[in-house]
Amino acid sequence: MIGVAVLGYGTVGSGVYEVLKLNADSIKRKAGEELKVLNVLDLRNFPGDEVENVLTHDYEDILNNDDIKIIAEVMGGVEPAFTFSKKALMKGKSVVTSNKALVAAHGPELMKIAKENNANYLFEASCGGGIPIIRPLCVSLTADKINSIKGILNGTTNFILTKMTEEGKDFNEVLKTAQSLGYAEADPTADIEGHDPCRKIAILSSLAFGKTVDFNKIYTEGITKITDKDINYGKKLNSVIKLIGSSNKIGDSISAMVAPFLFNEKHPLASVNNAFNAIFVNGNMSGDTMYYGSGAGKLPTASAVVADIIDCALHLGKNVPIDWDCDSSMDVLPIDDVPVKALIRVAYEDIENAKKAVYDVFGTEVFIDLDEGDDEFAFIAENETEGSIKEKKEKLSSFAAVKEVRNMIRMEG
Length: 413
Ligand code: HSE
Known about the structure:
Elements (H helix, E strand, L loop, with lengths): L1 E6 L3 H12 L1 H8 L3 E7 L13 E2 L2 H5 L4 E6 L7 H10 L3 E4 L2 H17 L4 E2 L11 H7 L5 E7 L2 H13 L3 H10 L8 H4 L2 H15 L1 E2 L6 E2 L7 H9 L2 E12 L2 E12 L11 E8 L3 E8 L3 H17 L10 E5 L1 E2 L6 E10 L2 H12 L13 E10 H12 L4 E10 L2
Helix pairs in contact: 1-12, 4-5, 5-10, 7-8, 13-14
L-homoserine binds next to α7.
């Protein structure tokens, strides 16, 4: 028997408990030994739930129990999860986690401590929920040099955008449904403002490119400014809006960002709907590979956590190396230098002169009108950088015929 502890009995923690119980037989076969939850740590009580039999409010109970060899940290947030993980690893216990905030902020330090103590720090569930993506990057694609990663990395925002697009539903109403389904973070700001996919693309990029990518250097925009108008422009262009995290290798640096993008409906990412996530990886030998599945939710995320527990059980007392140089940082290109193509919406005082201004500044005479009897049109800016487009938008706004530049949605391709 190998003792396991679960830190946090929320959505994912209760899922981990359930997966270990429901699939106990096959898990025992695969791990080589029975995996038994000896403790669950939570500040709350759960009257009537069988977890009460193993519940503790004191982390020292877990730390001082030599039978507990593996800890699933599914509390979320940086503290106390960081301190708890560090203490466990220093005692030679392996730690697995779904906590992207912690992995993005302190993953390298925790991996180093794990190595020094012949333990493992694994985090498959931190990116893409139940989708196997960390292990493919660490194991299956090791013969490749990765050129780029791009994906839908947040279930909550994909759920919201899908319902807004398909059912014309209101943003706040759909957010409440996503929360009730257990997709959203405790504070959904991390989802809707893009901070959650930012942490995830930082983790995936660090693994893909072998050096730490600082999430603070990743330009991040969420979906709170997306309106039904943006969605309707997308429909007019046979495209849908998806919140995308992406990173591309450019020489010794990478370009990385999180932002809403328009995808032609024929692109495979365009048909990834609801809380599903998908990640595209381009390798210099394998070409494109895509990973698809439930990006959020109790059992899919718990499945990834338990797979890591099994991996730790198979490697007790032995650190499995991960190609992530914890002492080196990856250069991230300044956002202004990143190439971009975008749909730009312009509100006008005088339509003819506003279109002339667009031609003068951006050199295009092709305009898109929603035929909704409103005061705006849109156009597509190509062959720009983020910096040049910012300057040109400011210039365009200074024309008397232009009321305002209303929104800009980046376009794939
Ligand atoms: N809040 C996250 C999401 C959970 O919606 O994708 C999974 O990381």
